[in-house]
Amino acid sequence: RIVVEFQYSDQNYARSVLQASTTYSSKKFDFWLNGYSEQDAKNQSLQQELSLDQKQLLANIGDSLYLARTSSIDSIGYVDNQIFYQLIDSMGYDSVLVFSVDQNLGVYRAVFQLVAQGNGNYVLDNFNALGKVYKWVAPLLGLPQGNYSPSRLLVAPKKQQIVATGATYRLNKQWEIENEIAMSTNDINTFSRLDASDNNGIANRFMIKGNQQLGRDSTGNWRMETKVGVEYLQKNFKPIQQYRAVEFDRDWNTRNRGFIGDQLFVNASNSLVNKKYGFAAAEVQHFGIGSDFEGYKAQLNGKWKQRGFQANWIGSYLVSDATGKNDYLRHKVDISQTLGRIRIGYKDDHERNVFKSNDKLVSNSYQFFDYQFYLANADSAKNDYKLFYRERYDLLPDSSRLVNSAKGTTVGGEFTFKNLKDQRLTLIASYRELKILDSLLINQMPENSLLGRIDYELRAFKNALTLNTFYEAGSGLELKREFLYIKVNDGQGIYTWIDYNNDGVKDLNEFEVAQFVDQASYIRVFTPSNTYVKTFSTELNQSIFWRPERLWAAKKGLLKYISLFSNQARFRVNRKTTGLTGFSAFNPVQDAVRDTNLLSTSSSVRNSLFFNRTSNIFTAEYNFQNAQSKTLLASGFDARENRYNEVSTRLNISRIFSIEYAYQRGDKLVNADYVAGRNYDIAYFHHQPTFSYQPNTKFRWSLEGKYTEKKNNAELGDERAFLSELGTSIKYNQAEKGSLQANFKSVNIVYKSDSNTPLGFEMLEALKPGVNYTWTVGYQRSLSNNLQISIQYTGRKSEANKAIHSGGMEVRAFF
Q1: d(CA 496, CA 501)
Q2: Which band of pLDDT confidence, cut at 50, 70 and 90, is reported for residue 380?
Q3: Cα 65 to Cα 477: distance, rounded to the nearest angstrom
Q4: Could you tell me where the beta strands, DSSP code E, fall in 488-589?
Q5: Which residues are 153's β-sheet partners?
Q6: Among 189, 187, 152, which Cα is nearest to 65's?
Q7: Region 531-551: what's the mean pLDDT?
Q8: Tens digits of per-residue pLDDT, 586-599?
Q9: What's the predicted TM-score (pTM) here?
């Protein structure tokens, strides 16, 4: 069981918080007083605007907030980045919402809420780039046929307050008493004076504590601790935060049962404590909730460690009476014994939770027994290891008894090697076999699972070789996701919208990664769905860096020549497939974006081979990179891959002149089945020479050229593009003041296919066929030690199109 605790604040009104506390302490007496108040300003709404009629509605419904439903249809005028509707009359019904992109008619915005089937007049029609689109369905015989309604719940202002005071009085060195009383106010609708009788509540907690030394010697090893407590909570009492144990309601079988009434919790415990070896404790408890629930529980727990023997245990037995009878027996035990260098142990976890109504088992009854034997090392200062064998039995009810329905068997081990020189290694592996013993009670296929992890680090040869490896294989669930595009300020997004079909609707297949700043007007936001798919996952993080110059830079002959080469490789891969499909399921670097069994992946594989890396005259570099991604969407997949090989060189002809050359050949793939018309597989190569003149550290001038050929796969259209670029750039630095950068490019493109498609956008790199010009000017200046200003101007011009100019300014303050 995993429990996550978190806090959040959903502020719909301006809110004020007041907290105060005071304490007093003396030798015999402690006193405290705490106050807390948090309230919304009901006439200062933040996320909603309330009309007088809506405020009156909230005033009339009291605490019945489910009645605060109002129409969500709002006429705000057409906005480009939202979904809008027009109101029409249809089949004798007026005020029917119809999706529209007409700026004159589509001026109504609506929020649709999911309601029970037959309680709404709308259904989900489709999903476009801006979100979900809903469609009206005509009623049948006057009865609604949909499950969505254009309505929203008004949020009422709230107030929550609590005052608590308490005291502790020490009777003597062994005994003390403590009492605390609290009063709370919880008004969930401060607009209304109705239903105010349940706003206030009171609670009280009383406790007696004893700590007695056993034996005449006050420094002896044995003592007895005693606690008796009574806690009372009126049914309307509302604490600011949950103060009980996080699984208190599970321990008493009251979770999600809806019991209402005053709560009374009584407990008495006695512990026998030895300060060298541990303790053993016994406790009895009573918990009641009005007339709905009454339970009694006995509990034993302890911890003991003596002469290599270790034991931890906790067990409880609950008898309760609510809508039916309940018996809840549970225990956990962990026992081990050290024998020389090894530790042998046994641990188990058992629960038998039986609910009966009219002497028959209720369907939520269950029982499980999970035990394991393990063998581990006794000395944690040396290499660690642990081997275990584990079995789990699950029992579920038929009409009259608990039946053994499933058995899980797991074997595994954990190893950590600490004494390896310049190395660290951790290995974890387990294999689990699940058998379904009664398929009528468990609707699940039997399966085998293999989980493992390798974590390795190496630093060798005076750090000339560094290696880090993390590999993990496991199983779990992958969440299907939806996404939408949200418009942001121009230049602050990532994507641009191109209306390929000229219908004015922002379809999912009409958004591309922006190539120029002025186009970047949208961001993509993923939203989770409620659908999961079972997966088998592999993850690999690997880095290898070989720098022989640290060993042989001063050598001669062959070793000197070898020291000129260095290599760096990095792998980051996370793959999720539909399950164990042979050895390929364990291979994280398999080229499988097109594989239908692959649900999602995110990978980056890069290898760089350097020659003469530290030289200031001539260097060369070979790079291989393969970046893949595949996302599981609610309506399909979105898969991308970019793989290339690149060779680059740099030659300094003299102190002020240098030549650079790069050649790259690669393949760019997009395979998306959630929309049509986005698939392509482009093979490309380009040559890119650069000539640079740099007389000093202040000024640099470059002449750049680039020739690119692209070809789409013949099965996907066989489109071709030829791009020729010629450009120049300058950079001027002012020491400790600022820098000026500018570039100008002429790009000639030959492309004879349709350019108004996702493929055309990629082939043309957001330009047009024919001659294109692009230019950029940027200036950055430091005004002071902590203030910097940046000015950017970009432009581009294509044949038969007007020039596009864009500029921006940014001021940064450093604190």
Answers
A1: 15
A2: low
A3: 36
A4: 495-497, 511-513, 522-546, 565-577
A5: 69
A6: 189
A7: 83
A8: 666 665 555 556 66
A9: 0.68
